[in-house]
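dumping these here so i dont lose them again. two proteins, back to back, each one seq then structure tokens. dont judge the mess
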Amino acid sequence: MRVTSSSRRRGFVAALVLVILMVITLLTGVLLKLVLARQTELHSAERRLQAEWLAEAALDRAVAKLAADPKYNGETWEIPAVEFAGFDNAAVLIALEAVPGKPDARIIRARADYPKTEQFRMRESRTLTIDLNTLAKSSDSKGDKKQ
């Protein structure tokens, strides 16, 4: 059996096609890994930002509650998944403490966990020192404007 030049050419073309398909498969695999890594990074950034916003909102919540009730000393604020378009629950710990040497001041500490579960949780903390006299004056002036 003799090998003709046309059958050699067909064999070479078939081998070349296989090599090209292997290269394309490898490149597709690498690109897929890059896309998945980027997606994971974006989800992580989204959770971190949400935790930051929750910690900031917790400070605002604490100031409002303290203005309404001077005996307010904090809470654990549970936020259901429905509030986040049905994805994950969140928990925010709000704690207040006296400022040493300043009886009319409070330190507000907020720690937000989003999501609440540990596997993908992002944790952000914020601290704010507030003067109760200033808070009382600002809430009184707001009450005067409503009358």
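---- next one ----
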Amino acid sequence: MISESATLGALVRHLIECLDGEVEKSYEAQGLAWRPRYTPVLRALMELGPASIKTVALKIGISHSAVSQTVSQMTREGLVELRKGDDGRERILVLTAKTQVMVPELQRHWLAVNAAADQLDAELSAPLSSIVREALAALDARRFGERISAAAASLPSRDRE
């Protein structure tokens, strides 16, 4: 149980640990050598076909750096391959046969994860998925850094204390 005095950052990190940790355990229980962070990359490649890291990052709304780190892990595990693009500078992600064989079982698993998420949403005063989307939209409209600066400016200055 997390402390009542936990800050927003601690709460969000703990929530992600609770969700992703259990999803990862469920992959293991199913005998799937898979991590939750691989799923957005796979889903993007399933939709787009072979694509650059930049294209995948834009598709899933995650930074290029984060996608690149995930792709490095996936490459080490033989889940994707990186090939040179047409101009030689761009790297193109391609699913390996190993991953393609896993896709039907992963899709089945995703159905179970989504059903569990729906159950969680039903138990809350407002669906978590809706609250998260609402929070992200608000942060798109006004970054958290701007909010921090405004809040800091409204605090009494040390000179006036």
